[in-house]
Structure formats: structure tokens, C-alpha cells
């Protein structure tokens, strides 16, 4: 594992985000100090603000200033810089986080710097994340560590620098100092506290009967540091549009009482793609619906309307491939290794997804298009397929719905309209009910 992490250290040599979860560190050869590798924990760094790209031909680093200092049992950060660098730090969990990575840089900070925070942080963030690298993300105030980390040099008139430190810890010594493959499943502290203080009346309460209603998983795309597509100079973000839509869809479906709805996220949290798939599988979902909004890159013309995607090894067309590539970068932005595709999925993907599950996914996509087209403007090619990682649950029919293009004025007006949202939610809820009623009638009752 350590050698794999080292291959991913220099930014640009594989997704900069590789959450190899070892706190492996690379420090400029001229650095004044090098700390030993630190504990890390799995899953999902916090937000990275989109810093502007440095001008072409600029000699990168730079970054001037940052700060934070002690306490709540240590802390510190500090950045400054103009030169030494090469770094990588890490520590994640279900938030918590740290992450650093770097080169490319050139932030030239103040103005809200890390939007406050101090004692074991609770905020920060910074930019670029590809082509040549950068990042920094902190958030925390829950089990920390890293305790030292460095670069320094350039001495008494100060800069360069970097530094980092933090400390405090536990949550069972940060899940026993991790790997054995990125442990958590020792779920957050609330679960631990509940286990430690059982309800005295539990013994007298009859067990609730199991809820045998079919499960629909709704997956609002992106979240946390992964903003998705943006419009209005960055004021309108895909992650917020699709969360609002997903919650409205949940409420509509739940009103029928026929289905149990599980959300992959209900707030602005980064969820790795593989974890979204795990939610669907662990809930034995009858259906997985991932909600997104698209945008065409500037200079590539205009497009409009909703599109429904299913999984295939080969993209329907170049636009489907572009979109799959963009959506599959979500983990790169969030700090998760794209090499960590679950082997169980890889082993049975062709055997299962391309047969029964793929058939059901395609059938649902057609039902969904039939309902949506009466209330929603659809793309001229409304049914497409490509290799979306989030659709790779081998035993759960799955679709990804792009509600429209934030790069198109008309679609954007719809996407921010409550009236349009309510109509679209209604048509999607009807499609889900139509599909599941037929499928469950042929499958027989739940066991």
C-alpha cells in the first residue's frame, strides 16, 4: 500500500487526490525538517475553493500567507512560501479530514483566507486540483493527528514555510491507525455512544417489524468540495441544485407510503462514488437514481434538455463520454483514489450488470423518459449510456438523470424554478411507481 501511495505523490502523476490514506509525505530535499508518516483515516476531504489558475508561463508556487495557531490540544498550519514545496499529507474519515497534496499553487491568499476556524481547525480549503496539482482542505474538529509535517527554510526574514501539526485524537486511536483497507465501518461516534449507553427500556419493547417496503436510493450528485457544474459566476452550483431536487423527490415518493427512500446525502457533504454504490447495495435497493445537471464547456456550442443515462462499457457518443469522464472525476476532487474500484464489482460487472440489471436499468430509463417528456424539455437524444462509476452496483437497477444544462439560459431558469422542480419531481415519482409496481408484481412479495 505504501509503495502505491508513493507513486501518487507528485501531482499530475495519477489523480492528485489519491487517498492512499497513509499520510505519506514528500518534502522538498532542501526542507529543514521532515516528519515521520502520520495516521490517516478514510473517505472524503472537505471543500476546495476554485482558485484561479496562475497565468500561463508563471513559475508557480507563490501562495502568500495563511496562518491559524493553537489550541483545543494543539493545531497550527501556516503556509507563506515562495518556493520549496513538494508535499502530500492526508487523514480523512467520515468527514474529519486534512489532505494537502500540492504543487502548482499560486494562491496569493488573504480576503476570507480559511473562513475562520482555529482549535483543530474547522474550515480552510484552497484551489486548483489539476492540471499540475494544488489543494489543501482541512475542516476537522474531531479526531485529528498528523502532529508535525514541515518544509521551512529561508530562515530569519522567514518564508518559505508550510508546517501543519494538529494533534488530539482517539475514536479508538483513529480506527487503530488505519489501513487494513481503510477500516471505518466502526461508524461515527454517535453509534459508539448509543452502543455504550443502551436504552434501559429496550428489553421491554417489542422489536419493530422489519420494513419490507422496496427501497429507492436517491443520489444527489457532487457535494462538499466537489461543486459540480457552476453558473452565475459560481453563485449557482450543481451540488446545491441537485440536493434541493433530490430532497423534493424524496418527499414526493414518501408521501405515497409505498416505498422507503434512502438518500446518499442530505447536506453539503462529499460522498465518494464507491460509497454511493455501497449505499444502494447495502440497502438492497430496488432502484438507484443519481441526480445531476450538465454544462457544455465554453466554446462547444449549446445544448438543452434532460438526459437519462444508463451504464455501458462503451459511451453512446462523445458527449456521453465527456460527461462520464467529468462525473467520474468527482473522487479526484474529493481525495479518493480512482484505483480503489471495489474488486467484487470489477469481478461481476460484466456478468451481472450487462445482463439482468442492465435490462432493468434500460427498462426504467424508458419508463422515466415517457413520463418526463410530457412535463420537461428533453435533450434531442434523451437516452444515452456510458461508463459512470456511480451506476456500477451489479445488482441494483440504476440510472443517472441530467436534469438540464446550467450552460443554457432556458434550462438554468428551469433548474432554479420551484414550479418546474415540482412538475419534474411529480413526473419522476410517477415513473418510479410505474416501474416498481410492474417489476414487483412479476418478482413476487418481499421475503
Instruction: Tell me the series of helices and strands, N- to C-terminal.
Output: HHHEEEHEHEEHHHEEHH
Helical run tally: 10
Assess the beta-strand content as a share of residues: 5-15%
- What is the strand arrangement across the widest sheet? 4-1-5-8-6-7
CATH homologous superfamily annotation of the largest domain? Zn-dependent exopeptidases
Spans of at least 5 consecutive residues with low confidence: 1-57, 179-183, 185-196, 336-353
Number of strands: 8
> Under CATH, the topology of the largest domain is which?
Aminopeptidase
What is the mean predicted local confidence, pLDDT?
Answer: 71
CATH architecture assignment name of the largest domain: 3-Layer(aba) Sandwich
Structural class, by secondary structure, is alpha/beta
Rg is 23 Å
In the CATH scheme, the class of the largest domain would be Alpha Beta
Name the quaternary structure: single chain
> Helical proportion?
25-40%
Cα separation of the termini: 41 Å
Instruction: Please state the overall shape, judged from the principal axes of the Cα atoms.
Output: globular
The biggest sheet, with number of strands, parallel, antiparallel or mixed sense and barrel status, is: 6 strands, mixed
Total tally of structural domains = 2
Amino acid at each position: 500500500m505504501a509503495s502505491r501511495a508513493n507513486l501518487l505523490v507528485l501531482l499530475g502523476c495519477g489523480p492528485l487526490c489519491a487517498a492512499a490514506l497513509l499520510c505519506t509525505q514528500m518534502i522538498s530535499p532542501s526542507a529543514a525538517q521532515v516528519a515521520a508518516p502520520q495516521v490517516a483515516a478514510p473517505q472524503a476531504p472537505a471543500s476546495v475553493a476554485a482558485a484561479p489558475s496562475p497565468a500561463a508561463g508563471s513559475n508557480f508556487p507563490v501562495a502568500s500567507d495563511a496562518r491559524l495557531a493553537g489550541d483545543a490540544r494543539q493545531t497550527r498550519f501556516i503556509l507563506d512560501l515562495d518556493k520549496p514545496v513538494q508535499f502530500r499529507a492526508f487523514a480523512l474519515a467520515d468527514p474529519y479530514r486534512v489532505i494537502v497534496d500540492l504543487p502548482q499553487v499560486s494562491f496569493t491568499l488573504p480576503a476570507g483566507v480559511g473562513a475562520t476556524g482555529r482549535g483543530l481547525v474547522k474550515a480552510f480549503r484552497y484551489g486548483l486540483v489539476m492540471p499540475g496539482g494544488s489543494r489543501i482542505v482541512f475542516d476537522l474538529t474531531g479526531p485529528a493527528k498528523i502532529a508535525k509535517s514541515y518544509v521551512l527554510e529561508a530562515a530569519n526574514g522567514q518564508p518559505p514555510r508550510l508546517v501543519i501539526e494538529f494533534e488530539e485524537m482517539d475514536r479508538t486511536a483513529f480506527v487503530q491507525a488505519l489501513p487494513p483497507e481503510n477500516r471505518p465501518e466502526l461508524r461515527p461516534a454517535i453509534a459508539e455512544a448509543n452502543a455504550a449507553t443502551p436504552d434501559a427500556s429496550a428489553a421491554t419493547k417489542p422489536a419493530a417489524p422489519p420494513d419490507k417496503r422496496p427501497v429507492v436510493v436517491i443520489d444527489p450528485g457532487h457535494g462538499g468540495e466537489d461543486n459540480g457544474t457552476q453558473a452565475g459566476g459560481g453563485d449557482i452550483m450543481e451540488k446545491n441544485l441537485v440536493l434541493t431536487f433530490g430532497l423534493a423527490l424524496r418527499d414526493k415518493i414518501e408521501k405515497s407510503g409505498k416505498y422507503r427512500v434512502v438518500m446518499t446525502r442530505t447536506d453539503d457533504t462529499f460522498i465518494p462514488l464507491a460509497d454511493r454504490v455501497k449505499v444502494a447495495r447495502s440497502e438492497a435497493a430496488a432502484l438507484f437514481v443519481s441526480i445531476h445537471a450538465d454544462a457544455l464547456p465554453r466554446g462547444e456550442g449549446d445544448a438543452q434538455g434532460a438526459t437519462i443515462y444508463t451504464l455501458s462499457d462503451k459511451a453512446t457518443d462523445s458527449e456521453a463520454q465527456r460527461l462520464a469522464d467529468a462525473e467520474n472525476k468527482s473522487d479526484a476532487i474529493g481525495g479518493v483514489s480512482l484505483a480503489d474500484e471495489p474488486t467484487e464489482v470489477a469481478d461481476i460487472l460484466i456478468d451481472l450488470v450487462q445482463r439482468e440489471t442492465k435490462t432493468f436499468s434500460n427498462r426504467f430509463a424508458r419508463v422515466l423518459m415517457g413520463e418526463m417528456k410530457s412535463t420537461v424539455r428533453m435533450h434531442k437524444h434523451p437516452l444515452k449510456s456510458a461508463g459512470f462509476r456511480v451506476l456500477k452496483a451489479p445488482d441494483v437497477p440504476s440510472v443517472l438523470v441530467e436534469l438540464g444544462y446550467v450552460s443554457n439560459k432556458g434550462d438554468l431558469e428551469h433548474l432554479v424554478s420551484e414550479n418546474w422542480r415540482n412538475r419534474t419531481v411529480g413526473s419522476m415519482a410517477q415513473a418510479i411507481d410505474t416501474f416498481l409496481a410492474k417489476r414487483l408484481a412479476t418478482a413476487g412479495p418481499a421475503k
